[in-house]
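Long-time lurker. I teach an intro course on protein structure, and each term I like to show students one example going from raw sequence to a predicted 3D structure in token notation. This year I'd like something fresh instead of my usual example. Would anyone be willing to generate the tokens for the chain below so I can use it in lecture? Attribution to the forum is fine with me.
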Amino acid sequence: MAGFRAVIETSASLADLAARIAAADRIGVDTEADSLHCYREKVCLVQIGLPGADELVDPLAGLDLTPLLDVLARTEMVMHGADFDLRMLHRLGLGAPAAVFDTMIAARLTGAAKYGYAGLVAEHFGVVLPKGLQTANWARRPLPPRLAEYARNDTRFLLPLAERLERRLQELGRRAWLEQSCRRAVAAARIVRGRDPETAWRVRGSHVLGPRAGAVLRALWRWREDEASRVDRPPFHILSNADLVDAAQRFDRGEHVSPRGLRGSRRDGFERAAEGALALDRGEWPGRVPGRARPRLTKTQEKHVAGLRRQRDQAAKKLAIDADLIASRAALERIATEGGGGLEALLPWQQSLLGRPD
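-- Reply from a regular --
Happy to contribute to a lecture. Here you go:
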């Protein structure tokens, strides 16, 4: 186990790390953010795994991270479940990385029944990683030693794990499958997912509300967003989605609503939001959102899907991998309805297993 190192929070130590990364063929990378503790999520830590050392970079120290981001873009990064970490690194300014080796995808392609990071570390190295710190406040400074050790564990086994999985993929002739899958994951992570303000308020359970109750929910949701932004706390710290839906129903029925924990000006704002919504004219109430009905397949298309599914399942059984890795039910239906266009949406290795369904 690597010895203790201080968190990197100076330009000199960052430059030294960038030089060591540049000399490496590949490195392990992970990130930590504080989405469970603030409204404006930020990257709080970047973990770098090198042979014999696991370094922690503090993005909150006011450093110019350009030297790190530049060298990361030129180096193969080993990650586990890369989507979140790539999105966090893009937020810091990372461009398209040269290559990514996702150990979770790799494990699934080898047919591993368990592909979580902790499970793989236990299986391959006999090490049981500590749990319970996933929800910690990573913005705390100075970083507590137990959080620092936990963070280093997230990269400590990435490089040797990648080596083992890579050897197995090469034995199985599936190394190219991983490359294709990782390229798609990198491209997907660069897509910015925005929230539609006209529909974001429709939280779980909102579908049971009538139009006026929907107007109340919309107003309460917007009040909660403003309040969470003002105090820089996650919205659920102000009031849960379930409480919002319940309050909207009760206000609509004319009941008195006083959620536990709302006091003073916060409670006043909550009540004003509801009162404003209740005073709206009927024409200002939100309409129902039509459900996204799945396309009705013809009998011929259903037969096509059944043939694709048989071929997919037979291939998955032979390869000892999860059938959904080859194609989901939605992907099969798209092939049946769109033909070649649907097939081309899959990766080349997936297409090769579904090219001629019986």
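Some talking points for your students: The chain has a mean pLDDT of 93. The chain has three domains: 11-189, 206-284, 299-354.
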